[in-house]
Amino acid sequence: MTKPINENTQQEQAIVIGAGPCGLSAALELQAAGFEPLLIEKNAVVHSIYQYPTYMQFFSTSELLEIGGIPFTTPNDKPTRREALQYYRDVVLRRGLRIRAYESAISIDRLANGQFRIETADRFGTTLIYEARYVVMATGYFDHPNLLGIPGENLTKVTHFFQEAHPYTGMKVTIIGGNNSAVDAAMELLRVGAEITVVYRGDHYSPSIKPWVRPLFESMVNKGKIRMLFASRVVAIDERSVTIQPNEPGSPSYSLDNDFVLALTGFRPERTLLTNAGAVVDSESTIPSFNPETMETNVPGLFIAGVIAAGREANEIFIESGRHHGELIARHIVELEG
Asked: CA-to-CA distance for 68 and 33, rounded, in angstroms?
């Protein structure tokens, strides 16, 4: 239960909710336009990147991850998770961005005077109140995995996040999914002697697999070092096994011995704050109503940036494209203020 509300309302020009790369980019663009935005982040800065596998290497070059015109230098062709964390930390410190970390936005209401009232809760359970003329929603999606909805999904042996392979040394691991996260996890698990089964509902390898990884992965499958089950799904999980159901009609289900399950089935953005503030979200695509030239929603003064602008296919917007949303937002706010 939260503690009583602090009645002192803090007045702000603009508030950015979410301090991931796209939220930071929006704040930097607003800063460059003469504003002093406040960022509210329920976890640490760039929490989404912190959640990536420990030894992950980005698909993008460092130039495509740059924000605020600050160079991202690395000796590698593709930057690593560790390098990205350091880069975004350095950007925050160099530009003096104001961030309220470990503080969660609870509600956003548009007042009669056109201002927004934002209620938050800090990590000690105290609620705080802010008012701002402009709000940018730049929340990510890593806190909301796509659940399987099957028996046993809530067992402690099941996780929707993969960080590193060491805990799975010598274990029987079932990976659910067939995109990059699943393939990367399988290749890392191979190095620690795990017995790996990848269960994928597709009939063939996903076309989104990184081109320099796919040949290596296919080679391990062909050599029998990774068991790949196409056109199949996990329908139940228990303490010592998983139940597999082939997609082909009439095919019987069967069990496999199992120690751990990595359900790498993707994530979805959270839209409750948007809808409660009056933003319209399409019920089918889950894409918010917004002007792509300004990123403003149907609620005047309420903007979106980053992956929250995508629909169910959250991987349609990456840092490379979402980082430019801040430029559109800042330009439009300057016009409104002009």
From this structure: 12
Closest to 104 measured CA to CA, from 319, 279, 273: 273
The ranges of the chain annotated as CATH 3.50.50.60 are 9-143+267-337, 158-263
The Cα 234–Cα 284 span in angstroms is 26
What is the H or E stretch that residue 110 is in? strand 103-110
Domain 158-263: CATH class, spelled out: alpha beta
pLDDT tens string 81-95: 999 999 999 999 999
Cα–Cα distance for residue pair 99/94, rounded to 1 Å: 13
Distance of CA 292 to the CA centre of its chain: 21
pLDDT tens sequence across 94-114: 999 999 999 999 999 999 999
Domain 9-143+267-337 has CATH 2.40.30.110: no
